[in-house]
Every structure is written in C-alpha cells, then in structure tokens.
C-alpha cells in the first residue's frame, strides 16, 4: 500500500504528467455530459429503457448515448468505420500505398481523408439510427426532423473525433480508444449492482463464482495482451576509436496479439450495420427480417460465427499493416545485427514473417473466443448488462487501453528517475533488452 501511495505522489509530482491527467479528465467529462444531451425533438421520457442485441453492445461502447438518443448517439464509431475503409485502400490503391510510405506527412494526409470520409458514413448511419427511435418518442416526425437530426449527429461525431485527438495530444493514452473505454466503464458499476440485486442473498454464492470467473477472464486477456515471442538478435563486435565493444545479444519482441484491440473495434463497427439496414427494410423482405433478427441477437450462432471470423481476418490484416518484417530486417542489417542461424536481409525478413504468421493464428483464435464469451455468459444465467464484461469488446478494450495508459505513465516516471508502476520499474512483458520493433 505504501508503494502505491508513493507512486501516486510521484505521478502528481511531475508537472507535465499532472497537467495531462487533468486535461484527460476534463475532456472525458465533456464527452460524458454530451452523452446525456437528448436530441431536439425527442421526448426522453418515452425512449426505450436500454437496448438489446447488437444495439445493446453498441450502447455499451457508447456509454448509453445510443439508448439516450443523445447528440453523441453514434459517438466515434463512424470514424472507426472510415479508418477501416482507409486501411483497406492502403492495400488496394497505389496512391494510398505511396502515402503510407511517406512517413509523418503521409499519415497526416491519410488522417485527413479519414476525417472527410467519416462525414458521409455518419450521415448514412444516422438514417438507420433515426429508424431505431420508437415513433412515440419523436414529438413531430417530419422531413425537417430527419435532416436536422442527421446534421446534429454528424456534428456530435465530429466533436467526439476532436475530443479524441485532443486527448492524444494534450492528455494520456490514445484518445479514440480512451473515449470508447470511458463509455464502457461508465456502465460497469450499474451492471455489477444489477447482477447483485438479481441474484439476491440466496444467490450470493453464484455471484461470487461469477466474480471469480470474471477475474480469471481478465487475467487471460492481460496474458494475451502482454504475451510476446522474443526473437534473439546478435550484434557483431564494434570498434569505436581505441575502444572495442563486445558482441551483444538482444531480442526483438513479436507480440502474439500485435493488433491489440483494433480487430475487435473493426469487427464490432461492421456487425451492427446488417441489423441497422434490416431494421430499415425488414418490412419489404423476409430475408431482411431474418438477418435483422439473427444479427440483433449476439447469442445466435450466426452472429458469433461471423463476428469471430471477422476478428480473425482483421487480426491478420492489422498485424500485416502494423508489423513490417522487411523493415525490421533492413533495420537490423543497417545496425549490424542478425538473427543467429539466419542470413541477413531477405532470409531474415522471411523468418520474421513465418514466426509472426505462426504466433498470430493462436492469438487471433484466442481473441475471437474472448470476444464471443459474453454470449456464453448470458446463456449461463448472467444478466445481459453484466455479461458484456465477460470478454468481448468491452473487456478487451478496457484491458488494452488501461495497459497502454499505464505504459505511458510509467514512461514519464522512468524519465524522471522515479520507480515505475511495478516494483521492478517496468510492466511485466517488457524487457530492457528488447529491441524496439519497427512498424
């Protein structure tokens, strides 16, 4: 406990870190306040209490903004969808491939295109959202209401984008992921209380078992997030003036889940699209009605099969674009390093790619299983709000963002010669001998 108190004091002793923490809390507070501002022309007392199925998952990611019909009803999700499209374009279109290789200037242009593409996406998704609002909650249904609501929701999403970028620049952690995580965390206390009340005194043992299972699942997610395969790297002897440096053996850490939370976010942002489209056209087609029914129920095998498949595909996809074996091999060759038993250059690149492919498969499968675990928890008798935290998007995003934020805080502490968040001065999974991995 003394160690924890000392660490907190050290954190707030650093002026820059203290300012960034307060900035982050300020921007988060603005986002949470906006989640409760109801759209003009909507009677909040007549809104449905909560959402089910895929809309319930979306509502959890948005911290209740979806079911509240707030100005942040779609939150940051259209921006995530635009990011998916741009990531695909960087593979298929030579122009975007060139931009990706231009470094910082190219990334800025890609980010600008992502922002522009977000506008038509949020306009399209806002039409589907309006269709999900129960008719008696709309005070005066009209064309003007539809158009004005589309504009307000679009402005709300753009404002959420701005908040995310401000958190990244002026605060702690990745702003976009932080906004999603805060929406999730805001639902956790109510979910725990609701589960405890549902079980009552007679079900206290069951509730305790559920808490233990949740703890084990969290530990599993942390292990998956931190697991690495270390590739040994040998550096030849170097002579500097009259000093001869002995050969050094270091490691390149290849993460088992190099894609992090992005495959879950990408897959989830696509999973609610069929349900929204089906809700608009289900009156005209039995097929649309069937799709809407199955993809609105995240316990259905159809939903979980597609969801798991998308996660595996996106894990490979995002790993391929975030980890470049060719660049790692070139950097090693230029610095005089080599993998023992492997020729520098092309052979090293192929070796890295082979190892990355092998470790990504179990990582992708584990990620998919964790993502669909809430469906099994719900079928086992856990209440719907609490089951969302037994894995899936909610838990993986929470763990990933928290670990990333802790890494950033620890970096500030170590730069100021303070102890890190752990007694060893570093988070488990990191090594002072690890070589920075190029991406």
TrEMBL record:
For the biological process aspect of GO, one term held by this record is:
intracellular protein transmembrane transport
Q: Which SUPFAM superfamilies match?
A: Preprotein translocase SecY subunit (SSF103491)
RNA-binding in keyword set: no
As for membrane topology, the entry says:
Multi-pass membrane protein
Keyword line: Cell membrane, Membrane, Protein transport, Translocation, Transmembrane, Transmembrane helix, Transport
Q: Which GO terms describe its cellular component?
A: plasma membrane
| InterPro entries cross-referenced by the UniProt entry | SecY, SecY/SEC61-alpha, SecY_CS, SecY_dom_sf
Protein family (similarity comment): Belongs to the SecY/SEC61-alpha family.
Q: What does this protein do?
A: The central subunit of the protein translocation channel SecYEG. Consists of two halves formed by TMs 1-5 and 6-10. These two domains form a lateral gate at the front which open onto the bilayer between TMs 2 and 7, and are clamped together by SecE at the back. The channel is closed by both a pore ring composed of hydrophobic SecY resides and a short helix (helix 2A) on the extracellular side of the membrane which forms a plug. The plug probably moves laterally to allow the channel to open. The ring and the pore may move independently.
Quaternary structure and interacting proteins, as annotated: Component of the Sec protein translocase complex. Heterotrimer consisting of SecY, SecE and SecG subunits. The heterotrimers can form oligomers, although 1 heterotrimer is thought to be able to translocate proteins. Interacts with the ribosome. Interacts with SecDF, and other proteins may be involved. Interacts with SecA.
Put simply, this protein is called: Protein translocase subunit SecY
């Amino acid at each position: 406990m003394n160690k924890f108190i000392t660490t907190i004091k050290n954190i707030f002793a650093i002026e820059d870190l203290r300012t960034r923490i307060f900035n982050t809390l300020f921007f988060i507070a603005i986002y949470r306040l906006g989640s409760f501002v109801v759209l003009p022309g909507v009677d909040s007392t007549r809104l449905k209490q909560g959402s089910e199925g895929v809309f319930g998952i979306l509502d959890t990611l948005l911290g209740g903004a979806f079911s509240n019909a707030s100005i942040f009803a779609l939150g940051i999700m259209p921006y995530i969808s635009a990011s998916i499209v741009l990531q695909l374009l960087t593979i298929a279109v030579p122009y975007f491939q060139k931009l990706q290789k231009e470094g910082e200037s190219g990334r800025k242009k890609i980010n600008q295109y992502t922002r522009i593409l977000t506008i038509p996406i949020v306009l399209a998704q806002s039409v589907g959202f309006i269709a999900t609002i129960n008719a008696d909650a709309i005070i005066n249904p009209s064309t003007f209401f539809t158009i004005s609501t589309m504009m307000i929701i679009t402005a709300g999403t753009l404002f959420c984008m701005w908040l995310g970028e401000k958190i990244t620049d002026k605060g702690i952690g990745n702003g976009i992921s932080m906004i999603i995580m805060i929406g999730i965390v805001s639902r956790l206390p109510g979910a725990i209380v609701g589960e405890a009340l549902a079980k009552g005194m007679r079900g206290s043992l069951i509730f305790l078992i559920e808490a233990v299972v949740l703890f084990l699942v969290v530990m599993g997610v942390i292990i998956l997030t931190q697991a690495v395969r270390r590739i040994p790297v040998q550096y030849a002897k170097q002579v500097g003036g009259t000093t001869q440096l002995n050969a050094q053996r270091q490691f390149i850490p290849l993460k088992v889940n190099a894609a992090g939370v992005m495959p879950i976010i990408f897959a989830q942002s696509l999973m609610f699209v069929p349900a929204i489209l089906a809700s608009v056209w289900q009156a005209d087609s039995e097929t649309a009605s069937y799709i809407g029914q199955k993809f609105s129920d995240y316990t259905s095998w159809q939903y979980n099969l597609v969801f798991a498949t998308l996660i595996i595909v996106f894990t490979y996809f995002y790993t391929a674009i975030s980890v470049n074996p060719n660049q790692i091999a070139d950097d090693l060759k230029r610095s005089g390093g080599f993998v023992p038993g492997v020729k520098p250059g092309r052979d090293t690149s192929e070796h890295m790619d082979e190892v990355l492919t092998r470790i990504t498969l179990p990582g992708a499968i584990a990620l998919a299983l964790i993502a669909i675990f809430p469906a099994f928890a719900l079928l086992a008798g856990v209440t719907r709000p609490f089951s969302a935290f037994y894995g899936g998007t909610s838990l993986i995003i929470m763990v990933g963002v928290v670990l990333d934020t802790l890494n950033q805080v620890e970096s500030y502490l170590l730069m100021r010669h303070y102890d890190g968040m752990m007694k060893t001065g570093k988070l488990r999974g990191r090594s002072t001998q690890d070589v920075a991995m190029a991406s």
